Structures are given as structure tokens and as C-alpha cells.
User: What shape does this take?
Amino acid sequence: MSQNFDFNSQMIFESDKFFNSCHASTIVRASDGTLMSAWFAGSDEGKSDVRIWYSVNTDGKWCEPKQIVTPDNAAHWNPVLQSFADRTRIYYKVGSEIEHWVTKYVETFDSGKTWTEPKELVDGDRSGGRGPVKNKCLVTHSGTIIAPASHELNSWRAFFDISKDGNIWERTEYVKALDGNGKIVQMIQPTLWENDDGSVHALFRTKSGSIYKSDSSNGGLSWSEAYPTDLPNNNSGIDCARTDDGRIWLVYNPIGLAGNRNKISLAVSDDDGETWNEAACFEDNPDKNAEYSYPAIIADADELHITYTYLRKQIKYINVKLK
Assistant: This one.
């Protein structure tokens, strides 16, 4: 099925000018209308010099990236932006080992000119990270915030953190999933959408070669056992967004072979995620070592805003104008 839209792209910053390596971008439309993107960057993923960087888009141009200064000496990971009525928050992970991440956040009330001191999202929690682990929170029609979360200690397990105000969080049970052979499916990094009837749905990154899906009929408090979709997954991050017309848009690597991230595409579903069609291919490099990965997507009226890792050297931004 063909889709009727135009899109254009640009790099948020120059390669190798500010840092050696970057990854895991996020994007948000702030309450003042400003687009902001963030990512982690430094000498290499997991190194102690890796910090959270960000850029603000003004009049269609991305400003020079800036680093958020924090007191932690360990690696920083996976920022996630969220807009509140009067401020913008960045959640992020801290820790030399993924299995023992701690979730912290900072906030800006002036579009990134200044930031608050870091705070732990859940004071004293050492379970491996709380709140959003890669993808944006879903704010439901009732105002509930659902954060897509996961842990990687011993095995990959996905869950959700629920909040009414962004300050007090309660987590769900881990989402269960078994493959066709009765083995536990390793799942992390959910991405969410809500339907008009209030049902909530999630897609998961897995180690099983395909994206899995789970559904909730009570606002994210409990979830069905996850089940496989027809979408391939290369054990890499995905993200989706729902437009007002009910279509679900998914950015992902349409590859089932774990390890390869050399193609990234936009898919669309007109039937609540039951079936999917390719809407656009953004990158398709014959070099299997090329990497285009960890996308982020938001829906904004008749536009989509997308960012993703470009060869671990840059963050690419794509603006899709729907018709």
C-alpha cells in the first residue's frame, strides 16, 4: 500500500566535531513549541566519559549540541525526553553495567538554556532501572503516564512504570511471553500507543527474530501474554507513534538477522497493529557493517518527527509531512 507524504532529512550535528561516537536519540515537542532531541555520546558506548547531549531546533535549524553536566563519573545511557506543561524532562540511565543501571532525570524550564540538578527517578532503587528505558512515555487520555521499561539482569524482561504526576511511580509485573517451543522470550524496550477506546498496546524488541506485541484493557496496569507479530526484529530498538487518524507508524530495522542494522524503514498499520505495510525506506546500505538504528518517533498533527543513529557518528532527523 502506498502512502501519500513528503519527507526531508538533515543531520543534527557534524560528524566527529564534538565526540567520537553517539547513539540512542530521543525527540520531543516541548510545551513552548520547540523541537528538542537528545542522545548519549563520548569516546564509545559504555565508557566513563559518555554523557547526555542535546540540541534544540529553531526555525528549522538544529543548534550546536551541548552536554548536560552531571556529577556522575560512570557512563550515561538512553535519554528519553518528555514534555510537561511548564518544563521538559530528560530521563537517562547511569552505570558502568547495563544490568545495574540507575534511572535519573534533569529538567529545563527554558528550552535547554539551564537544567536542574539530577535526581533519581525512584529514590534508592537498584533493580536495574525504572521508568522509560529507551522509548518515550505514553500519556493516556486520562492523564496517566505509562513508561515503557525493562531489565537485563540475568534475562531480558519488560514491564511498565505507571505515574499520575511523573513523581511517584508504581511498576507492573513483568510481561510474560513464550515462543512456539514453550521457551521464555527475551524482551526489552517496549514502545506504546493508545486507542480511542482506551486500550493500550505495546511492541517489544526481542531476541526471537520478530517483534512481539502485548495488550492492556485497563490503562496499562496489567498486560496480556505477548505474542509474535509478522514484523522481523534484529535484536535492535524500535519505536512507534499513533496519528489522530488512527494509523500506527513504526520505525524499525526490517531485518530478522540479529546483528545487522544496515536498513531502516517506516511501516504503517491501519488496523491497530494487526498488519503492517512499508511506507518508506530511509536507509538501505549493502555494507552489512553500516548502522542505522535506535529510532525515535513522535506524531505532531499532520507531521512525524523521527531521529535515529547514523553510523554511530551522527543523529539523523527526518520530518515527514503527511497528506
Notes: Residues 282 and 313 are 17 Å apart (CA to CA). The radius of gyration is 18 Å. The longest strand covers residues 21-29.
